[in-house]
């Protein structure tokens, strides 16, 4: 049943961003992000020493410089693009639409308070984590954090979450049609570069305790584990998109980017970008379907550094297909889910 008009609200939930490109703000953001037990899943004390004593002190300044290469006059691309999606969605639904970040600002609590000001008799918030695929470090942490803030502040409205939409027809249609114009030019290969996760996260999320990463065909073998298996869901998205677009077998592949150490899902995007020109792939299309909004990992890691690596290895043409961002068909898909919720 749909709650009466005026008693529901919508919340778009994204990852987050530093408040600015200063090393101080980037350090604050990285501490919050990397201290999340679902991102770095080690005991608190070890995580504190690792993150606060080793990773952030050495990474903050470097990350600040990376953010400077993509920052806009309006601010962080991720925040700006999430607001643009909010603006594209608002005319399509009756309920007010807010946004919240898992890390940084606008915070979850700020978003709840803003929605309550707009709807004083608020009964339900339909929350949409903007992650197509289930992963501990993305969808799961966003949902659990939203519940934690809701419980901590004793809000009386109920929370309803939209599930991961990696195989939803309206999402897949929007993504496929977004890609289609880029296929009009000559290309040798299209690379689906998904954000990487440690293999242990895949195993931890396996409710059966024995299916995920147990064989070379585990992602193709039916199992209840697929409901929370990031790797399976990524492959399922690629499989359906290439089917809709008629991309021939052998002309596409999957890879995983943004790794932090050993034991992460393979093949690695950065390694493949150096290998492909040697395999005769000179004209490359690349996209990042784990993200719906362009951010540091797409604009700096893939569009800038990835291109440099590919061309330096002998590649000739390199095109990054942007994320869905505020695409009208994507906004319409979101509106459809809200009406069905």
Could you list some keywords that capture this structure?
four-stranded parallel sheet; 12 helices; 8 strands; 43% helix; 15% strand
Structure characterization notes:
By secondary structure, this protein is of the alpha/beta class. Strand 3, helix 5 and strand 4 form a beta-alpha-beta unit. The model has no long low-confidence stretch (mean pLDDT 96).
What global shape is seen? Answer: globular
- Number of strand segments: 8
Spatial order of the strands forming the largest sheet: 2-1-3-4
Q: Class by helix and strand content?
A: alpha/beta
Unreliable residue stretches: none
Beta fraction of the residues?
A: 5-15%
Helix content: 40-55%
Number of helical regions: 12
* H-E string: EHHHEHEHEHEHHEHEHHEH
Main sheet attributes: strand count, strand direction, barrel closure: 4 strands, parallel
Ordered list of secondary-structure elements with their pairings:
Blueprint: E1 8-17, H1 23-34, H2 44-68, H3 77-89, E2 97-104, H4 108-118, E3 124-129, H5 136-152, E4 158-161, H6 169-179, E5 189-195, H7 199-204, H8 230-245, E6 252-257, H9 269-275, E7 283-287, H10 296-299, H11 301-312, E8 317-320, H12 328-340
Parallel strand pairs: 1-2, 1-3, 3-4, 5-6, 5-7, 7-8
